[in-house]
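Kindly go through the following sequence and its backbone structure tokens. Advise at your convenience whether the structure tokens fit the sequence:

___
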Amino acid sequence: MPQKTFFITGANSGFGFAIAAAASRQGHKVVGTVRSEQSRAAFAERLPAAQSVLCDVTEFDRMADVVRKAEEDHGPVDVLINNAGYGHEGTLEESSLEEMRRQFDVNVFGAVAVAKAFLPRFRERRRGFIVNVTSMGGMITMPGIAYYCGSKFALQGISEVMRAEMAPFGVRVTALCPGSFRTDWAGRSMIRTERSISDYDALFDPIRQARQSKSGKQLGDPDKLAAAVMDLIESDSPPPQLLLGSDALGLVTDRIERLKQEIEAWKSVTVSTDG
């Protein structure tokens, strides 16, 4: 693959760092966003060949200037990896609207703000690749992560529209939908709402305990995900969404089958409203 310039949000950990490291190893130029000087120093130590910029994706009004400066300093960006995000865990009734707002600010509005800063540049150059990191949680749901799934469903839908709108200009867009991987998503990066309603104990406590016990032991390997992303970037026909992980494949496939059954069971009611 010819050398490309990658702009990766949330580049100092998890998928972001794994992709940054893979791209750097293949000789690509990497510009990663970090949120603090401490993270910047750690990123530089772990990946000296990469560049970094201080940027919180929720500073929406700064995005155009951040991207302009990044391209002035490092040249035109070819690939945007929209990775910054985090997980929120808590039953819907127990979780505050403020927690939901913060979840959507980062996972949806932040991702869209970064993408929108690149869209005119990619459109005018008639090239570019946007990878929006969603989740299998953007295609299925699980009790206790309503805000997270909601944010990823939103980004999933936005990604499909973005793909259709940018296709005439030679700009490719793929939503990356990982299953469970060995990152900090279920560990230090997850925000957990305190429990307060005992009626939910039987449903939710086992889910929370299982997620915590499996953290760091998930089947998914972030380095293999990064390798898959590098293959995706090189593809001449990238898909609208790419599932990664056998758990994502199984759970999403099951959901599609259930959806087909639900549609069939209610088809007579569905068509009865015509006329």
